[in-house]
Design a protein that fits this description.
Blueprint lengths: L1 H24 L12 E6 L18 H18 L3 E4 L22 H12 L3 E8 L8 E5 L11 E4 L9 E4 L4 H16 L8 E7 L3 H4 L5 E8 L3 H7 L2 H19 L10 E7 L2 E7 L9 E8 L8 E4 L1 E2 L5 E6 L8 E10 L5 E11 L11 E7 L2 E7 L9 E8 L8 E4 L1 E2 L5 E6 L8 E10 L5 E11 L8 E7 L2 E7 L9 E8 L8 E4 L1 E2 L5 E6 L8 E10 L5 E11 L8 E7 L2 E7 L9 E8 L8 E4 L1 E2 L5 E6 L8 E10 L5 E11 L8 E7 L2 E7 L7 E10 L8 E4 L1 E2 L5 E6 L8 E11 L4 E11 L14 H10 L6 H5 L4 H15 L3 H12 L29 H5 L3 H19 L37 H10 L2
Parallel strand pairs: 1-2, 1-3, 3-8, 4-7
Antiparallel strand pairs: 4-8, 5-6, 9-10, 10-14, 11-12, 11-15, 13-14, 15-16, 17-18, 18-22, 19-20, 19-23, 21-22, 23-24, 25-26, 26-30, 27-28, 27-31, 29-30, 31-32, 33-34, 34-38, 35-36, 35-39, 37-38, 39-40, 41-42, 42-46, 43-44, 43-47, 45-46, 47-48
Helix pairs in contact: 2-7, 4-7, 8-10, 10-11, 10-13, 11-14
């Protein structure tokens, strides 16, 4: 056991030296103000839109891992003074700031985020993702872009093989400074992440033009933090404590990139005291600028080097100090000097040496257990260890026997409990099947534990086990078409053989396609298996073949290995052609040769307008002649004109995607047009019609901005026309919606195409004479309403009219019937009559006996026309007076002919159409500018 003690002592001292040197060198850096450094952390994919990879066994989703890790990275960076933020809102955000107030549209996800980060002058962007591959794929990898088109477009070249779909990547032979800093950070991540423990490094720092990294104007790195497809790794990545570990390594890397201050942890004092068998260690005045994970205190006695070395964790006390008390019984009650060292671990996982102390212990007197001998014997596959002549002053609690083979150092170390025999000795027998059937030398140590819990080494010995292993004279591999045949010959199996297993994998993608096959025994004693590369992703290149035999003891032994080279011809096409017809683009892929079969032919198409904002992937259909074709409509590409780019990819039955060719076409788009824009007016209504519309790019709407010439465009309104059965578009516009303006109205017509573009189609103008309260039209009041009005005035109806047989009710009926005869609104005529006659009280130049109810011909001192004198002082004469009034209103308000014999003494064609409305009577019928208001006031009382 001494060599183990010495080995442990060397390891422990080495750790102490390394930690001391690491503490000295790790803080030498140029400083920068972290608070002035803005870091945007982008969680990849978008919750509710794109989950990213999903583990089929445990349901762990990439988008959830991305969000959780990004939150921890931002929190950790902010805790160290960085102005860190999430790129967009995510579920579970504890209130951290975001670059964007709302989630961006996913089709422009990376562009929106990068544009905003560029706009605010961010110093760094980190995009967080998790990978997907085979179930056994494992490890993290990093991506950076040398190509940053917003910064530098010199030295650009294309490289194949970086994208799985076969497309080329844009790289920069003379990368700008931000690209070099991106590469530097990716390499820092790669090294610092090796401290994580829960996910290995793939040692892959890849230069590629990913969307999120190439669009930035600052250093940027995309992290693939491990494989979601690996169930074990996915569960580790979902562990919050592991996510925090990665966040801390991100912080350490960012600090190194920017030269952030990393002042070391310090302590003002480290002391140790002894009280009997107890040692108490205390650390005072701990200062941890970079956070504190733990205070560790390794303790060991000087006796036998560091064989009793134990690491203890100090606990924080109420006074802020850290302390731990240990019992020397855990160090075998060893007397003499004890060494105590103290280390602080910060948030980055860095160990800092804080001090050391030495104490002298006089332990309670303890007599140790002894044994006369420790022996080991071998019979077949069984090793028997015997411990004899035990003297135990403090009793025996247990005798434990650690046993391990020299093969693989201590990888098979097992501790056994010996059983007391009748003669007082202790014995234990073990089977080498529990030690991987290892042959060679086995180490046997014996420890006794007494009733005080003290464990004492009683002795050690070795035993040699001879075992014959399985062998094979050869392992060969032969290729035929897409098949590989592996043959294992000359198998010698001293312990029998239960099966021959052959793992096979291609060099392409590491061991992501590794499969274990069970070979079949042949009549000549060899073993053989034939596999198809379709089960290995149709990979070409080198394939590795290993052979392992399992014997009757279930021991698996490597017997031999070989490699073969598989040549896989990729899919090809002789031509990719495209043609344009109207708004349609047709693409034909001819002469396809597909040794691994055809799963699908994929055709991404986009227009040159707006970059690739309209990129769409189409699946071509097989034609009867074996060619493939697809026809698309440019309406699905925003009706863009100009150059269209067409690429073609073939996906074979192994899901391998190969670039087959590309072409481009030019599309000429014709804007919408109309043959006529017409407008007509009926009363206050303008009817607009847009006809003869040709719209190659589709019609979203027909818009009609309309305004009157009065006061410029203060009444401008945009209307949307309605499609008619004949294909034209029509709209009725009420001048009331334009302040009731009279005069010229301008109407323009615009067509809004399906992609949102607006095209001018034409214009028209019309003259509108706005009629607010028309004189002509249908009567809307009843005789009862007019009678009620008159009685409510308190006026006394003229007795002479009653004596003529025309009472109030008859008088009202006559007005209504005369108005209906000429198409005049009775409410207008009656209201005017009430105004002109003072509700039939007259009192001016006109007398009731004249039957002149509108003051026709009356002027100052002139009584006006006398209908009674001409037509008789009778009911006929009275009705004729009403008719004359109605006809004179029609003369003013209409161009239509009279329907009854003219009795209006003032009729004159020059008066026609002078007043279409009550409002226009003011200044025409009567000089009083308030005349219309007075008439309307009476009408409102009806």
């Amino acid at each position: 056991m001494e060599h183990i003690k010495n080995r442990r002592k060397q390891i422990a001292l080495g750790v102490i030296v390394i930690l001391t040197l690491f503490t000295f060198f790790s803080y030498f850096s140029q400083t920068v103000d972290a608070a002035s450094t803005t870091v945007v952390v982008n969680p990849g994919h978008l919750d509710g839109v794109d989950t990213g990879a999903v583990n089929s066994s445990n349901g762990i989703r990439e988008v959830d891992l991305n969000n959780a890790l990004a939150i921890k990275i931002v929190s950790t960076l902010r805790a160290s003074g960085y102005n860190a933020m999430l790129s967009h809102p995510v579920p579970g955000n504890p209130g951290l700031p975001t670059l964007l107030p709302t989630s961006p549209v996913y089709s422009s996800f990376s562009t929106t985020i990068c544009n905003k980060a560029n706009e605010i002058g961010a110093d760094l962007l980190i995009s967080v993702h998790h990978n997907s591959g085979g179930a056994a794929a494992t490890g993290y990898e990093l991506y950076w872009s040398s190509y940053h088109p917003t910064v530098d477009n010199n030295g650009i070249y294309q490289k194949s093989g970086l994208w799985g779909d076969g497309s080329t990547a844009d790289l920069d032979a003379t990368p700008p400074t931000i690209a070099l800093k991106s590469m530097e950070l990716a390499n820092l991540f790669n090294e610092n992440f090796k401290n994580l423990g829960y996910v290995p490094s793939r040692n892959r720092v890849i230069e590629r033009d990913d969307a999120i990294t190439r669009k930035t104007s600052m250093p940027s790195v995309l992290i693939e933090a491990g494989f979601v497809s690996n169930s074990t790794e996915a569960e580790k990545m979902a562990d919050g404590s592991n996510q925090q570990k990665m966040a801390e390594q991100v912080l350490a890397s960012v600090n190194q990139l920017f030269g952030a201050s990393t002042s070391p942890m310090t302590a003002t004092g480290f002391t140790a005291t002894v009280d009997g068998d107890k040692i108490t260690a205390t650390v005072k005045g701990v200062s941890a600028p970079n956070g504190l994970q733990a205070i560790y205190i390794p303790i060991w006695s000087d006796d036998c080097g560091q064989d009793d070395l134990k690491w203890y964790t100090a606990t924080k006390q109420s006074d802020g100090n850290y302390s731990v008390t240990i019992d020397v019984k855990d160090h075998g009650y060893t007397n003499g000097d004890y060494q105590l060292h103290c280390y602080g671990v910060d948030s980055y996982g860095k160990y800092t040496f804080l001090g050391n102390s030495t104490v002298t212990v006089t332990a309670s007197s303890q007599e140790k257990m002894t044994a006369a001998s420790v022996t080991g014997t071998v019979v077949g596959n069984t090793i028997t260890a015997s411990i004899k002549g035990i003297v135990a002053p403090n009793g025996v609690t247990s005798i434990t026997v650690p046993i391990w083979s020299e093969t693989g150092e201590q990888d098979d170390l097992k501790w056994y409990t010996a059983t007391k025999e009748s003669d007082g000795s202790y014995k234990v027998s073990v089977d080498i099947k529990d030690h991987n059937y290892d042959g060679g030398e086995y180490n046997i140590h014996a420890y006794g534990k007494d009733d005080n819990g003290v464990m004492t080494l009683l002795g050690a010995t070795t035993a040699t086990v001879k075992i014959d292993t399985m062998k094979a004279t050869s392992v060969t591999g032969n290729v035929s078409g897409s098949k590989i045949t592996a043959t294992v010959k000359g198998v010698t199996a001293p312990n029998g053989i239960t099966e021959m297993v052959i793992p096979i994998w291609s060099e392409n993608g590491g061991q992501d396609d590794l499969k274990w096959y069970l070979a079949t025994k042949q009549t000549d004693g060899s073993y053989k298996i034939t596999v198809d590369i379709k089960d290995h992703n149709y990979d070409g290149g080198a394939y590795h073949i290993h052979a392992y035999g399992k014997d009757n003891n279930n021991k698996l032994t490597f017997v031999s290995a070989t490699t073969v080279n598989m040549i896989v011809e990729p899919m090809t096409a002789t031509s990719v052609t495209a043609s344009v017809s109207g708004n349609k683009i047709s693409t034909i892929i001819s002469g396809i040769n597909a040794p691994s079969g055809i799963n699908s032919i994929l055709v991404p198409i986009w227009s040159d307008a707006g970059g690739q904002d309209d990129l769409k992937w189409y699946t071509a259909e097989r034609m009867s002649n074996g060619n493939y074709s697809v026809t698309i409509d440019i309406k699905d590409h925003n009706y863009s004109g100009g150059t269209y780019f067409i690429h073609v990819y073939g996906k074979d039955n192994g899901d391998k995607v190969t670039f087959l060719g590309n072409t481009s076409v030019n599309v000429t788009t014709t804007p919408m047009s109309a043959t006529a824009v017409n407008a007509t007016v009926t009363e206050n209504i303008i009817t607009v019609s847009v006809s003869g519309i040709t719209a190659p790019n589709g019609i979203k709407s027909i818009l009609l901005p309309t305004w009157s010439d009065v006061n410029g465009q203060d009444d401008l309104k945009w209307y949307s026309a309605t499609k008619q059965s004949d294909g034209s578009y029509q709209l009725a516009i009420d001048a009331k919606n334009h302040n009731g303006d009279s005069g010229t109205y301008s109407i323009h017509a615009y067509g809004e195409e399906a992609d949102g573009r607006t095209v001018f189609l034409g214009n028209a103008s019309v003259s509108v004479r706005y009629v607010e309260t028309p004189i002509m039209g249908s009567t809307t009041v009843t005789a009862a309403q007019l009678v009620a009005y008159y009685r409510n005035t308190g006026s006394v109806y003229p007795q002479m009219y009653t004596d003529l047989g025309v009472n109030l009710e008859t008088f009202v009926d006559l007005y209504i019937s005369e108005c209906n005869a000429e198409g005049v609104r009775a409410e207008v005529a009656f209201a005017q009559a009430m105004l002109e006659t003072g509700n039939l009280r007259f009192g001016g130049d006109v007398k009731p006996a004249q039957f002149n109810f509108a003051g026709l011909g009356a002027t100052g001192g002139v009584p006006g026309f006398d209908f009674a004198a001409k037509y008789g002082s009778s009911s006929i004469g009275l009705q004729t007076g009403i008719r004359g009034h109605v006809q004179h209103l029609k003369c003013y308000a209409s161009s239509a002919a009279l329907n009854q014999t003219k009795v209006d003494p003032r009729w004159n064609d020059s008066l026609r159409l002078r007043a279409l409305s009550v409002e226009e009577l003011a200044g025409t019928w009567a000089a009083d500018t308030t005349y219309a208001g007075k008439v309307k006031a009476i009408m409102k009382k009806f």
